[in-house]
Structures
1.
Amino acid sequence: MPRFPAPVASRLPRVGTTIFTVMSRLAAEHGAVNLSQGYPDFGASPRLFDLVAKHMHAGSNQYAPMAGAAPLREALAAKAEATFGTRYDPEHEITVTAGGTQAIYTAVTALVRPGDEVIVLEPVYDSYVPAIELAGGVVVRARLRPPAWRPDWEAVRRLVTPRTRLVMVNSPHNPTGSAWEAADLAALAALTRGTSIVVVSDEVYEHIVFDGRRHESCARHPELAERSVVVGSFGKTFHVTGWKVGWALAPRELMAEFRKVHQFVVFTVNTPVQLALAEYLAEPARYLELPAFYQAKRDLFRAGLAATRFRALPCAGTYFQLASYEAIGDEPDTALAERLTRQAGVASIPVSAFYEAPPAGPEGRLLRFCFAKEAATLSRALERLARV
Ligand code: GLN
């Protein structure tokens, strides 16, 4: 086995392996029900698979255009116009990416220069901070607070300086399951008005919102649309997280910079899947049915949690449910998540993984459970959690 003969000066000295990989591995080792990493345990539509096969057999197996297959960019433009009322030009304002994470990484790399400040809201999805640090940016943190977890816009405003380059936002929000209201868009628009700040808006759970809510997209707000890179994901929407296909919408000036980086990160995304998704998008019902589909799972999981010592926090969107374990004890969430996986046979994600320093108080006693699972899987997990 070859060994590198010198110390390696790491670009990311404080980063280990992502919590999602760590917990999924631990779940597999212990045969636990895996409610940690966010992915469905049920199949996607056979129609979608047939479409991929059709395009492969038809010979669409060479590079797609760098920005994405034209039919898919056109389908995404139609979808954005129908859902947000905003027209994005497929030629210059839409790029297909290898998943949401790549779109976020690419946006940050394209826009953040060394010393630029980037505001993030903690708990923050684990890929944002490393992307900022690799670009030489300075991470500036604001806190979201339970139970609503919506931004305290006055506190965010106090963090804005002439060096602020980006604000990174995420609604519906991973891990908290909170979702923005129209007032949040208005507040962010007011806060950035007259500045050159860009918003990177991670909206990969856009179609998973509950109780009749409307997804409040930065693409829906005319002023924010002018300064936002809006990120979406087919993995979340069509139950194919392993396909790693997403997209970014942005005004032409920003998208030109995004594509300069995109072409050297992945160049382009696999062709037959893009063409299949373009056809599949033709029926909006395929994504419009998602709120009802996931709301039933949320309700089933929350009803089951009520019979345990875990206390469910409100869940307005995403396929994640936060649960407080204050009634069980005060061990650190990482220790409890590991113990539950080994002993109770249920894997979850400790919410401290989304903070720079583990939070004190009630925010530090939370686990995240993914309910994108068959009813039988959720029932099995709930039976086990009831014994904890
Ligand atoms: N977004 C998924 C989650 O929050 C994980 C994706 C990943 O494993 N990188 O669980």
2.
Amino acid sequence: MESVRTDFYLDGRWVRAAGGEPLAVHNPTTEEVIGTVPAGTAEDVDRAVAAARAAFEGWAATDPADRAAHLDRLHAALTARTKDIAHTVASELGTPLKVATRVQTGLPLTVLRSYVDLAAHPPAPQTVGNSLVVREPVGVVGAITPWNYPLHQIVAKLAPALAAGCTLVLKPSELTPLTAYLLFDAIDEAGLPPGVVNLVTGTGPVVGEALAGHPDVDLVSFTGSTATGRRITHLAADRIARVSLELGGKSANVILDDADLASAVKVGVGNAFLNSGQTCTAWTRMLVHRDRYDEALDLAAKATDGYRLGDPFDPATRLGPLVSAAQRDRVRDHIARGLADGGRLVAGGPDAPVPQQGWFVAPTVIADVDSDSALAQEEIFGPVLAVIPVDDDDHAVRVANNSRYGLAGAVWSGDEERALRVARRLRTGAVDINGAPFNPLAPFGGYKQSGLGRELGVHGLEEFCEVKAIQR
Ligand code: NAD
């Protein structure tokens, strides 16, 4: 069924977009067009920013309890759309329905709930000597988001921005905009004050650049590739606007010699292949102590065999396609280059069978990867795991840190103190020890070229605040 969306959401209502060729949205499993959305212009961005600016003073002055009540109503309206959202993500992105429900829909609802609480109970002002230190909303936020977690990436910006008292203009990814429309249906139903949140769809070079470079946007909050993050930072620099950036990753899963190898490899492979590897935090480098290396490769090959590719709506499917033909081709090129650079194929690879229709890549494990090679250095954003042998803890830390990225990572050891010592030495924004669960209240963000700033929890709220010192 085609979903034809013709409007932007501006100043609290749906507004028909002026002419222009709409953007087609594809289903990556069937390769068919499943919908269209309008391609916005710089003038549309002007209107959206003007609405957000006009709403700012009133929203910033709203009582925290009222802001929390608005977010609570949004949470209810979004929860009522759980099934629709999961189906839309499965259709426009290809995530298997179970993961689309549990992760792609469940996680943003959890995050939104956490900001209902934080909006109601914001961090108290601090007293520093004779100063009262208060936090105030930064102003109008321009939010630009990617396609890989199409609802979560938006909610991780919109919820803390609104909780802090900011107003916002969103430009979602042109590859997965239909999920964003469902969120704005919920926003409309929840009755947020006009102008507090606004939606303009379109391409990065037109709508994204107009938003990032807009003189009346105080903070650009971006999630996406490092190349685009760099461009956005340049655009914002002209007016010294603030930017927060959640960018790429090439995270290391460090498996020490005393680890529970079966768990470490099984969870590690699952993490690398989640969402067909289109996950910025994916542990795409597995670093294994030499004494356990061959055993780990056997386990990784067996685990990979269990990943059945197919239709996201088939309950037996564990991996869907990649989001686009271009992404599929990029990932295939990376695999070919990794093998040409001396990597040894352990599972999957260029000749492994994939469904005839759809933009699929077989889950692939490549061993003996040189830590300086492209396969170990580039973010691939597909189901490709590079395995690298290491000699001891020091060597593991050196290899793990041999990256321009630093977003996530893992350490496995039978000795938790040893794992903690290694975790502390990793130059990365998050480390999970022995498969510890994701914490949606913990700060999320990157070292080095993985980004600037933090999302989620109280740290995520603070990204949307200015700090004021009042002396008395
Ligand atoms: P992308 O950078 O191509 O696009 C992200 C968004 O930026 C899209 O909305 C796009 O339209 C827009 N955009 C593109 N060019 C622009 C420009 N010149 N000016 C302004 N906006 C522009 O990234 P993508 O392909 O959508 O997403 C994949 C990348 O995102 C991967 O590299 C991945 O690691 C990264 N990512 C990071 C995180 C994180 O939290 N760190 C999360 C998800 C994805």
